[in-house]
Specification:
Layout (H helix, E strand, L loop, with lengths): L2 H24 L3 H12 L13 H20 L5 H24 L4 E4 L2 E4 L1 H4 L1 H21 L5 H7 L1
Antiparallel strand pairs: 1-2
Length: 157
Amino acid sequence: MKKLDKIGFYTALYGVVIILLWVGTFKFTPTEAKAIKPLVINSPLMSWMYNFLSEMSVSKLIGITEIGTGILLGFYPWLKKAGFVGGILTSITFLVTLSFIFTTPNLITQIDGFWVVDAFILKDLMGLGIGLWTTAKSWEAIQAKPSEYPFVHKLVA
């Protein structure tokens, strides 16, 4: 990788890590627990959690997942297995949040005849891209040294 490539990649990578850690930590507040409920309760992938857990517990569970994902993703430069798992979890996280566009009423609205989606969801496209890229690059590193990563090879073989 050339120097500018590295700067760009690591800026994007750690930008996503910071978002996951920051937003994951915010999930431990009552304000965020209340704010995400309309998104989660309308999601066929996630709404079932409210059958078993309180509003705050659902938010904390999501927060723990986001924090763990951010930590794994952040270890990509040193631990390719962690980067691989973190990349997969990041991709899943942002695919799920992007699905809210289609499951949450009124998330897509019209302003002056122009269709708009809340920007806080659209930014997840970049997170999805970093998750996919990190998964691919981690897998390439693992493939290059199979003897160092036997567990991962068994997992995906």
